[in-house]
């Protein structure tokens, strides 16, 4: 399968590119930093994976958000218009746990942490995206990742969400690719955890 990948130079996106290529798929990637990926032949896409995120000054929970509040929803809406015009209707969008109906399933400590730090601004941005994607005619899936972990995978039985839940970027990448390629969870939002 040939996919379009937006945000391909980000921390998780680089793993998505590796996962796509390791499975024999091809991709067209839109990157912020041109030198982040090497160019390849251009092909027409069958689906899109969007891993854009709100831009913050650093990875700290107290870091100021640099991107405008509507960055994700406006970017996604523009991409969906272009995709629809090109006859591509499948899009998988990386989001975050705690957005939309997943907020109710978060432990109270996670809610307090997310609500009292600058993470709340990223949640608001993802919340707008969550509402916006549902207004499109796309075959969308929202993949809501819990806390991203850059290291070894931890096991989880997938029942509920805990304060300690995390997901490796490799696991998120595999999930995004699988959902896009196999057409899973169409017009649904799912929480991704190890």
TrEMBL record:
This is NAD(P)-binding domain-containing protein. It comes from the Eukaryota. InterPro entries: NAD(P)-bd_dom, NAD(P)-bd_dom_sf. The lineage of its organism: Eukaryota, Fungi, Dikarya, Ascomycota, Pezizomycotina. Belongs to the avfA family. Residues 7-179 form the NAD(P)-binding domain. PANTHER family: FLAVIN REDUCTASE-RELATED (PTHR15020), UPF0659 PROTEIN YMR090W (PTHR15020:SF50).
